[in-house]
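[job 4417] fold queue: 2 targets
>>> target A
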Amino acid sequence: MSSSSPIVYSFSLLLSLALIFIFAPEILPSQNPFFSPHDDHDDLALFNKALRSASSVHGRGRGHRRLRISRLATKNPTPKIAFLFLTNSNLTFAPLWDRFLRGHSHLYNIYVHADPFSDVQILPPPFESHLIPSKKTERASPSLIAAERRLLARAILDDPFNLYFALISQHCVPLHSFPFLYRSLLGENPLRAFTSQPRHRSFIEILSDDPNLPERYAARGDGVMLPEVPFEDFRVGSQFFVLAKRHALLVLADRKLWRKFRLKCLNLDSCYPEEHYFPTLLSMADPEGCSRFTLTNVNWTGSFDGHPYTYEAAEISAGLVRRLRRSNSSYPYFFARKFSPECLPPLMDIAEDVIFRD
């Protein structure tokens, strides 16, 4: 018996190593240089807290939901739009956004996720007091998904009246007045906006016919996305969205797809997790509840290294604003990117007479 023990131990060790190799991706945190297990643990606690908070506000039954809203409405009955700014540089267009939002503070909230390892300086008004606890972000990594989920969670925790969540980049500018955007999304009856929440649509681009979809799907390795994400369910879309609250909560509750999309990319040229995760998740969970169109106009003509066309100061005009508003959806575009910092002065010059005149 004793003479066979080394053989048995060796076999057991080899078997254990084989099992770890096979099942480690499912039971251990992904090894991604831009997203640590510690970050994942912190975020999970935050998301669970936000989900519990939303559950205590809305309840589970229809009557319970009315009761909770009625009690909250005695304090402030106004539904709001949460603007989620994701940035790794200074908010150059803050003066334009300030003018866009001025006079409507009871109808919106602002939340800013600024990469603490970037060159972001002190945020100007009205953003300086709205910075959330932020972590490092990196292009073509799941850290951008995590940052966007972090923004959603903080907005849900902060104010139960945030009913829409608009993700904005530092290069985005508004194309309409705030009242026009608000009425388009929520109407003019606050109580109806609350009771109609189950019918609110999300505005997120969802594409299934992108010619690069096979390469993007296999960016983490052949078959890695299975079984949670079959190729026929994989989608691509714009990073920037406007989510209804029920879909924001769905994003925070997701664990299954996140386990796949947080994995390290092997082919960085085809891997843009933030453009895949949200369209895929919402298309699989509630395809009829999404418009499949984004409200942010992005010009990919002449794009370079994965970046869209950048508008320069000489191009700013009333005609450009009118062209950027046009959409194939039933809604016009409400935002546009990408603009160089030099565009701020000419945009400010036409703000009142063109941009905010609907």
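>>> target B
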Amino acid sequence: MESIVRLASLTISNIKNVRNGQIIMPNTYRKHLSYRNAEVLGVYGQNGSGKTAVIDALYYLHRIMIGHPLEDKIVDYIDTKSDCGEISANFNIFTEDVIYEISYTIVLQKSEKYAMIVRETLSCAINQGNSRSNKTVFMDYKRIDRADIFSPKKRLDEVIEAGRENRTDLIVAKKMAEKANCSYIFGESSREIFCRDYENNFKHYSEVIKALFKFALKDLFVIRNTHSGVISANFLLPMAFKIEQNEIGMKGDLAISLTEPVVLGKEEKELLDTIVDQVNMVLYTIIPGMKIAVHNYGMQLMDSGENGYRVELVSIRGDMPAIPIRMESEGIIKIISILNALIQAFGNPSICLAIDELDAGIFEYMLGELLDIFNQSAKGQLIFTSHNLRALEMLDKDSIMFSTANPDRRYIRMKNKKATNNLRNMYLRGILVGGQDEVIYEKTDSLRIARAFRKAGRAIQHD
């Protein structure tokens, strides 16, 4: 069996306005070590209370785990009152005869106009047969530690034991990772060493690093609010996709212009055709009678001198003429942009799809139906933020976390849900009268708001 990786929890510290916060996936919350069911987790809360920080943390975790250099702008995500930020994720890796429980922690430190990775740790517990080992650190990299490549020494010795040249290669890889400002564990040079075939005890840890890298590369989707932003601006349609072609396949965003036809090369045109075919398998059931198509205006010379295809994405409803996709509503375009990723998460237990502001432009009844169907019938994981409370009527309390007014404990689950009350009513009552472990809404004063508007209106008139 091919390994299946599931996110168990995510902890963030000093990232944006979150001094400390943890989201816990439903199976982990229920202490259910399994991958055989869908997991849906919605994060709700008032504006500015740390919802988007979850998606941003997953985005940077994803980039670090595929070995990409840190973006300079990540420094702006570290709390202004702190020099360091931390992202820690727990994963469960399921193989044919072993289950690995993994913790991966990254410490980011500010340095003038950028941030750097100053520490990475990987910990592992091994479930095999009826026994479970204690969770212990098997790789601890510290940037400032010049004496040791990584600790513990026992694990380092296992890597070196497998090949005499490995020590030199690891030292070179460490310097290359620091120069590139990327992960040491998942950076290309060191990852190649860690993922070799080992006959000694390091083989377990080699499998863990392989599985986590593969998960980040092909199975972890993070769709941030910038994705919706270019749609709202009627500028681009970024189509999140995953295509199975070989062991890894292809995954990413294919951006299609909403302002005019675009010229694509042969491979991009074939990719767009494949995405459209997959989207159409489901789209007509969500938007009755609708499908999308690639309108080909013919061959056109590309800037490279090669022949390309001048194409435009169009929508078709029944017998009506095709119209450019930009003429459809923002909600329909949003659904089309994420539908391939949703299809992948629906059918693959190793897919983790995180979407910021899932409800943007989507009719609330349809939002509830999609979430209910996914929760009942899908195989993968879906994490989303939203302001629309429809999901609170469709999902149980294990599948919803709420952001709080306390930056030291940003995310909680609602307590004491009675069978006669739906979560929406409980949440609104918690806003009005409290009763939860943390304040879930910093109250606003409608009289003060109205007074401020009147004052501002008079000031504008006098100007």
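[job 4417] complete. Note on B: The chain has 13 helices and 19 strands.
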